[in-house]
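URGENT: need a sanity check before tomorrow's submission.

F., can you look over the GPP34 family phosphoprotein record below? I want to be sure the sequence and structure line up before it goes out.
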Amino acid sequence: MTPAPPPSLTLPEELLLLALDPGRGRPVVSRTSLRYGLAGAALADLAAAGRITPEGGGRFTVASPLPLHDPVLDGALATLPGPAKGGRGIRARRWVHGAGRTVQELCLDRLAERGAVRRRTGRALGLFPYARFPVGRVDLTGPARSRFKAAADAHFPDPRSRLLGALASATGLDAKLLPGGAWRPLRRELRRLAKEEWTAHAVRQAIQQDRNAAAS
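Structure tokens as predicted:
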């Protein structure tokens, strides 16, 4: 059975831990794709908590604005409008596209507060500011990777692990966590899952929108 995550570790926090190189503190996938993935993970947690409701067609509505007493999820919830009184819901792709940076900063602040990452800043060539987030004094990255590997070995047997696998696929993180030919069939299954899970699908759409814009 897949080990349970720490109760206070949200889905976006866990995805971020998986995506950061433990030593260098840099994402192992595109920074933009990761931000979209974190926003999609926040939507998944908000939906599981009953704060938002998927409508179909890539849209969702806010079912309740009541806080969850979690800084990451409450921060994400605060960026959404109040419960709809009619009309169409919020387009998931658009929200993911706009909220990714905010959700990432919420996750990094929370993980730094927990001691899971250390925030290191500097300037490349003395000019360009950068930030790195290597593992901190409390190692939550190792357990997160162990949980992901155990879930992969069991073919992602529970809803949370399936969501995490779908989001990893949507962002391209699956190829980093499950490299090589032996995992290829499972990565294909995760790609299918990423199309079916509405939050992961929104992430895929946001990434594709950027690619289309860059190609035009």
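My own read: The chain is about 55% helix and 10% strand. The radius of gyration is 17 Å. If you see anything odd, call me.
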